[in-house]
Model the fold of this input.
Amino acid sequence: MRPLSGKIVILTQPLADDDSLSSHLEQVGAEIIRYPLIEIMPTRESPEKHSVFSQIASYTYIIFTSKNGVSYFFEYAAGSNTRKDIREEVRYAAIGNKTAAELQKYGIQASYVSRGNTSEDFVQELLQQNITGQEILLPLGTLAPDTLEQSLSSYNVVTRLNVYETRYVSIIPPEIIARIEGNRYDLIIFTSPSAIESFMHFMQQAGIRGDFRMACIGKTTARKATEMGIQPLLVSSKPDGAVFAKEIYSYLSTL
Done:
């Protein structure tokens, strides 16, 4: 028998996201129930989007905070035939190794990769790099905070462009509601603050209250859970699927 046989884990991340977390847990016997709470999609065409890409050659720094920002930025650049206009000497910065790895898929080596995991960490590191007098582009999601934009604008010209949006799913399967209400699960895993918000919205609609057994990847996601009145049982030490899977394994092995 595998170590986590009989353990039921509900995974709430979008289906298109990195699947290393579920694959690691399935290898040790956990039953994974996939229940995406959010959908990620590109933002619609807009005059702002067209304007930014038509002036793409003016930017000296492009800073990414997520894999989604990278993929949707280059997807639009390819579709609008503007990638060729990005200046060769432009510098790229990225939060975390996963974002940097996504850049590498497009043949790009990030000039700087943040050692931290949040926008606040990233800001402090970038300021230490003495980034001043630059034309900076921030391809972000609609729900991303304005931390970077505000902090870097004092010494640079900063343009924020939302290249993707996060939407709550429209319905929750009745069997998922019944499972959570019947307490027939061991852990619900959250990988973003928006997934926490979506989950709590559906729980309130269904009239389900209580101490949900949550595990969160990263401090930002855990903070959102706490703000909404839930104390996570487990918070990953790093926002990395393989690391988080090991920590979940250790936690569930004690139950």
Q: What stands out?
A: The two ends are 16 Å apart (CA to CA). The longest strand covers residues 157-168. The domain at 41-166 is CATH 3.40.50.10090 (Rossmann fold). The first helix runs from residue 20 to 27.
